[in-house]
Amino acid sequence: MGSLSIVALILAAIIGHVAIFHPYSGKSVPRRALFQSTSLSVFFVVAELVSALAFAMLLWATVTESLHRSNSIHHNMDYKCPTAKTGLFGGAAFLALDASLFWLVCQMLALNARADYLDEDDTKGEYGQVYTSEADGSKV
């Protein structure tokens, strides 16, 4: 389970990077323009740090558990003996969840930065704009 968690965290970080830097619809945005947004810069750095810390803690707990199991002197594996610190693995799992959420926020901020750079308008209309077909309550 620890190895699977590490792989999932690495995939989430890779997908987060691709989602931020990959051009959409053939429209590329320079990195400098993306990171003019202070909030995107801050969330990107926090996502990187939290991902690295979660990776280190997951790796530590997984390696500790693996070493304990391979070097066990007990012949009965059902013996109730303390193994890797459960708090360490739980904290690493919580940080991995936080990292994926930070990557999601970075994706949303990158979409805003792209829209600002490319001067894209909202295709849904202006705020407060009401069509006559909606005003009388009937649907056309």
TrEMBL record:
Keywords for this protein: Membrane, Signal, Transmembrane, Transmembrane helix
Keyword Membrane recorded: yes
Main location: membrane
Membrane is among the record's keywords: yes
InterPro entries, per database record: DEAL/Modifying_wall_lignin1/2, DESIGUAL
Location relative to the cell: Endomembrane system
Domain of life according to the entry: Eukaryota
A cellular component annotation (GO) from this entry: endomembrane system
Pfam family, one: DUF1218
Membrane topology (UniProt): Multi-pass membrane protein
Transmembrane segments: 6-26, 38-63, 83-105
Entry similarity comment: Belongs to the DESIGUAL family.
Name of the protein this chain belongs to: MARVEL domain-containing protein
Origin species: Eragrostis curvula
